[in-house]
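Pilot study result, target chain (482 residues):
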Amino acid sequence: MTESNSIEKVSSNELANDSQVFTSYLSQFGLPVDNIIASTEQRNILGQNIPTFLNSLSQESKQDARYLSKFVCASSIGLFDASLNYLWNEVVLNLRKKAVTYGVDIFFDAAVGGRNREDFENEDDLGGLKDIVLLDTCKKLELVSDIVHCKLNFIMTMRNEIAASHPNVEAIKSFELLGYLEICVKEVLEDQLSPSAIQIGALVHNLRNESRVLDQRAIHSMEAGLKNLSVSHVDNLLATVFGIFVASNTSQNVRLNVSKIAPQVWKYASERARLNTGVKLDGYRTNLHQEKMERGVDFLRLVDGLEYETLQAKVIAINYLAEQLKEKHEEWDNFHNEPPVMRDILQYCKSSSDIPGEVLGKLIEVVIQCRVGNGVSYKNGVSPSGKPLYNQFLSILDDAGVEVLIKSLFASSVKSRLSIERCRVNLRDALVLLKSRVISERLSNALQILIDEKANVHRVAINRDFRELTSTFIEWPPISRE
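Predicted structure:
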């Protein structure tokens, strides 16, 4: 008798009856029983449908899937919130495995900025990343698609707000839970990394561990592979090879091999990634990391990129503060830690002309993330002390800055937040402030559409009037006719 057959032979009525034992047991001690175990109707629905889903999975997928056993047991009893918790924990473990396969060095370079990067070295340190940072970085590195990222972001919000990880008075319905199960299993746990992602991990691993000096044939082979990678993968690779080159514990042979492949990586990297390399170099200079600074200059020299060495001190300072604000926003106790950083930013930014173009997009994206908040119910997810500071920053933006802000609303890091109602309400308040200050009638009308649509970027993305008004600064893809 197979495991799947044994599950099918237990009827939903039997599962529901068994769960009454638990409610009776709680009652005899005077403990609450309401909103603890799902109703008989909800348990019956799940009991009738879950065998079909389990039978659709391969035996290989189920063989060591202890999380599925826990999910089925908890949901059969009626503890739907606990079931979702087991499921989400497995998703997190799977995303960490994907990060390891891709390469933890590249992953941490993308996930952790500033001085905290030194605290993240190996696979064990992945546990130090918040789930939202893990998920957003997987999206950034294309380990999960935009659509899967949006779905997982919603499931994570439900897990945080409703599941067993937090006190709550809400309840998950059976069909909702089945939908979450299908998304997590089919689109994450059974999904394999793309060949490009695996290639990146292998390339970095080979660079770090190859004791011999690479010959010209190996260099040509690597360059051929680089041509087929997406720009984001190449940008991540550039950050990693630069880090390997300047590190004090890198052997001479490894540094020589990096020097041979670095010009090709530089060639295919984006302008933004090259600028970030210069920012890192000036950061070493500012923080008196003399060895790293000297090696960084050598790196730029060998890739013929010395023009990126000298960046304005203001650009460096604001870029660093933007990274700090993002880090504080994603850490615990962010409500208290964000305002001091934002005050430092406002010391540099008294008017729109004070914000260098090199960091304008990055700074606006970080500030708008803080202004829309993280979606929790406490203070509507926005730092009470930080809110007036964010409004102060938004009020100094000129029309060009507002254009950059509107464009940033469609970036994955911001767009994913706007799937939450509280975040949309917070954004709508900010848009009202911006509309009162813009000069361009086109911009004013575009902001009004966003306000009228309650800051729902998914709806305005298919609004033809909005597309026409913003077409001068947003390159819109064609609207699907399906």
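One observation from the pilot: Residues 288 and 419 are 43 Å apart (CA to CA). A full batch analysis is planned for the follow-on phase.
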